[in-house]
Design a protein that fits this description.
With about 150 residues, this protein is an alpha/beta fold. It is built from five helices and five strands; from the N terminus they run E-H-H-E-H-E-H-E-E-H. The relative contact order is 0.20. It catalyses: 3-dehydroquinate = 3-dehydroshikimate + H2O.
């Protein structure tokens, strides 16, 4: 059973409460339950984290270097600002899928650039919280095939 890290950035702890017209009504606990269900169906386990602190996300990426087979990351606001998270992801040699609940390209111009995308093997944007399930499936597929695309 491979371990997939699911990492969430700032303000995602308010999912379901903050701007539901953009992010929906599901909570982060709902997202975690869905991720665990999909990962289990595919024979994998997940380690699910959320932080409003950049350094904690970086520490979890470093932790994943030791025991993770893949990372699904929604860096939230750090998407557009964090070279440090990009640098940490560049040390991780397994698959990385970037997820955004909203379609960032239909939003403010500053949201159109992602530092994380420079490392991601795939990007899912605008599919709501269901995007996490697609990301878990893609990471699992890449783990199984042993390739990164």
């Amino acid at each position: 059973m491979s371990l997939i890290y699911v990492l969430n950035g700032p303000n995602l702890n308010l999912l379901g409460k903050r701007q539901p017209h953009i992010y929906g009504h599901e909570t982060l606990a709902d997202v975690e339950a869905d991720c665990r269900r999909v990962a289990s169906e595919l024979g994998h386990d997940i380690r699910f984290h959320q932080s409003n602190r950049e350094y904690e996300i970086i520490d979890w990426i470093h932790e994943a270097r030791e025991d993770g087979a893949g990372i699904v990351i929604n860096p939230a606001g750090f998407t557009h600002t964090s070279v440090a998270i990009l640098d940490a992801l560049n040390t991780f040699e397994q698959p990385v899928i970037e997820v955004h609940i909203s379609n960032v390209h239909k939003r403010e111009a500053f949201r159109h650039h992602s530092f994380v995308s420079h490392r991601a093997d795939g990007i899912i944007s605008g599919l709501g919280t269901e995007g996490y399930q697609f990301a878990i499936r893609r990471v699992a597929s890449l783990i199984t095939s042993g390739e990164k695309k």
